[in-house]
Amino acid sequence: MLRYIKTIISSRFQSLFSRLFGRFGLSVSINDTYFVGLRKLMFCDVKVIDYEHKTVAKIESILYKIYPWQSLSGWWLAGDMTITCFCTDHKAITNKTFTLPNIVVTLGINRKRATILIETNGLSFLSNVSNKKDQIEVLSELSLNWNSYISIMGDNLICTHFKDFSSSTPVSANAILRIAKANPKQVWFNASIKSDEFELSNPLIDKQFLLNTLFSKFGSSYFSLEDYTPYEKIPEHLINAIICTEDPNFLTHKGIDIYGINLAIAANLKSKKFEKGASTITMQLVRNLFLNHNKNILRKIEEGVVSLLLENYFKIEKKDIIELYLNLIEFAPNVYGLHNASRFYFDKPCHELSLSESLVLTYIIPRPKHFYDALLQKKEQLQNNLHQHIRQYASVMLRKWLISYNEHNNISNKISFSAPFDVLTLPDFKKIDINILDIQDEYNNVGFASAAIILDNGHGNDTLGKRSPVWDDGTQLLEYEFNRDIVKRIAAGLQQKNIRCKILVSELEDIGLEERCKRANIIANEYKGKAILISIHANGGERSGWECFTSAGKTDADDYAKILCEQFRADFGEWIMRFSGPYLCRKENFHILKNVNCPAILSENFFMDTEKDCRFIMSENGRERIATAHVKAIKRMLHLMSSTSKV
Length: 647
Fold this sequence. Notes:
single chain, 6-stranded mixed beta sheet, 23% strand
């Protein structure tokens, strides 16, 4: 009888755990079960098995204490477990043996819900798993400190540079994961980290430390100090191409890309393998500089931790991250860094690289050895793949206004490589008929040579607030990124029409109003007042629609603002236009409006804290429409300036 009860209990445990972890391709095997008194069970030789029937982890014993009243009142299982000697050497988790000697788990599991609290060595992890009708939802909270992290990682810690740092300040993280039952591709993930008081002892990580690490690790066998290319000498179109291909959210994330994690989770669940890792450029820098290329969970965790430290705690700038990244990555066997790659493939310094050559380098990054071999053999498949890559990302860069239509249309299908590669001829690239996109109107022939548009992109990545809520799909708008993107698009549109424009802020960080006004006045004085300042923003206040502002009272900017309002009313008829007064613009004594020596307009482009508005201005269609409306209005403003001699 006792043996029968043991068999039933063991089977029930295996069934419950297999059901819980089955969505992740895992099952549980229990070798033996013992009663310890009336309320305790001992499970011995427990194994977690993956879909290939390989052992993921071994557990020496689990002592399970039953809470009978909770179990009888609705839970299938309620109690706590003491796990002794959890051990794994599975290649998907670690490259070395990873052991936790003692883990305490408090849990309650039934058919629809599981609540699990795991505590070990200073780490606390609480997870609530809900088996809903159409989806599985996992809510998780993690709390630990740096000393606990170092202790838990043990010999599996690869980056020894951080090992001697100490901190007992707790860091907490919250995450939510939803997986659709009908389609595992439908994954929604979001996470946040609270580390306001986090502080490490004796931190000494800055750009110079990273440079020293780079030269110490790679040394003269890879490249010399003279081969190092500073950010200022890297072509802008190459930087933009790298971001578009490797990490589209590089300028807005803080080391880890939540949207990228969504895609990775969906891909890994579908394949039931750890094959996609959501690496950002920051994480790739960390991997190359401090870690290794083994594909396992512990290395990925360490990669994420160090990336978060570099961007959030040590405040390493984005431009420094991409500079270091381009100077250490491999482009061919024993060819490292942008300087050497440019000489090796094109026999020219990197600042002379064309747009097409830059796009070729972005194609090489994920596959340097395969590309080198295929190029030597002039494989037809390489020609097709390279053609598709250049066409795809040139189109992406055009849609983001990172290149002009002329630059897009002038991409050559002949890539001139250095010896021994020679010329690689690709299929012809389809050109865009600019005349279709740039409809002729009465304002096209106005002379703009003596006037300038000053574009203020406002706020920075360190400006407090100035962001939307995090929506249900994990997306969030950061106003500084929106402002800069719209300004870049407007500038590219004006360039196509030979209209002079100046962008006030090139920095990512916040530039104060006094400095922005000072810069605007220098430009306005240079053009003897023949300038118009347009400050781009996204609105807030949980309303909807578009509006613009000029200074209080009647100003020289009012007629120009009216043109902008009329243009938005014509182009955005489906949206609320928040107009006021005879000139349609609203009146406020904003600093940027009243302290510049030229007409100034502030454009508030929909409300980022209203979901409908926010999703519109996050979309490619919304941003292109907003930028295009500004460009068309600016042409009319300059026509008015020219015809009325208003300045």
